[in-house]
Design brief:
Radius of gyration: 17 Å
Largest sheet: 6 strands, mixed
Number of helices: 6
Number of strands: 10
Strand content: 25-35%
Strand order of the largest sheet: 6-7-8-3-9-10
Structural class: alpha/beta
Distance between the termini: 7 Å
Shape: globular
């Protein structure tokens, strides 16, 4: 597999070109990483805790800035992107965390609709999109009116995935989403993510290597001590 940044007519969605992340303490979280994520690709980023997986996801989101190298997302050089433009970039991303961080003071439907409301949609349009997103991830429509903590762990991760796709992102970043669900729930979540990749969404999923079924179309990248190999 060629991991050099794409030079084809259709550029990679994400490109890391010798990207390094070094903190003030001197710790190197990422060391000259070079790889690309192509459109409609499903990539599993695997490695032990503390290896640098979350650093890569945070760099792509613009929550961290590289100490060296060049990082582009959808053709935009993040180092040159104005801070005011970052929220617009993040709206094109869907993020799923191992802790879904759902709000139990409001029903599931409102949780899913939050990113659409933040993007400026009317409440009517946001709720319509939220219902469609819930349907795409296989949630029972009856779940729309209950608080998230009334659902199982696997169902809550489906809610988080529905929330992540409600703004129809080009890229889904999933940070160890199967860590706290059972084997069946993990398998179902991976199948859903694979379906999104088949439909044209790029998926990058970080995992510390728990026993999960490997999707047929997945490409595996390994990271250890900040160094990426494929």
């Amino acid at each position: 597999m060629n991991t050099a940044p794409s030079t084809a007519a259709s550029p990679a969605l994400v490109s890391f070109d010798r990207v390094t992340k070094r903190y003030d303490s001197g710790r190197v979280a990422l060391a000259e990483a070079t790889f690309t994520l192509d459109r409609s690709e499903f990539v599993l980023l695997t490695g032990p805790s503390g290896a640098g997986k979350s650093t890569i996801l945070r760099l792509i989101c613009g929550l961290e800035t590289p100490s060296g190298g060049r990082l582009t997302v959808a053709g935009e050089d993040l180092a040159r992107m104005r801070r005011k433009a970052l929220p617009f970039l993040r709206r094109s991303l869907g993020v799923v965390l191992q802790n879904p961080l759902l709000l139990n003071d409001r029903p599931v439907l409102d949780n899913v609709a939050l990113p659409a409301l933040a993007a400026g949609l009317s409440r009517t349009a946001a709720l319509e999109r939220a219902r469609a997103a819930m349907s795409r991830v296989g949630l029972d429509p009856a779940a729309a009116g209950v608080p998230p903590n009334a659902l199982s762990g696997g169902e809550q991760q489906r809610v988080a995935l529905a929330r992540a796709i409600v703004n129809r992102p080009a890229l889904i970043l999933a940070d160890e989403p199967t860590a706290h669900v059972d084997h069946q729930g993990a398998s179902q979540l991976l199948q859903l993510l694979e379906q999104f990749a088949i439909a044209g969404v790029t998926v990058l999923m970080a995992t510390h290597g728990e026993a999960v079924p490997l999707p047929a179309r997945a490409r595996v990248m390994l990271i250890d001590a900040g160094r990426v190999t494929t």
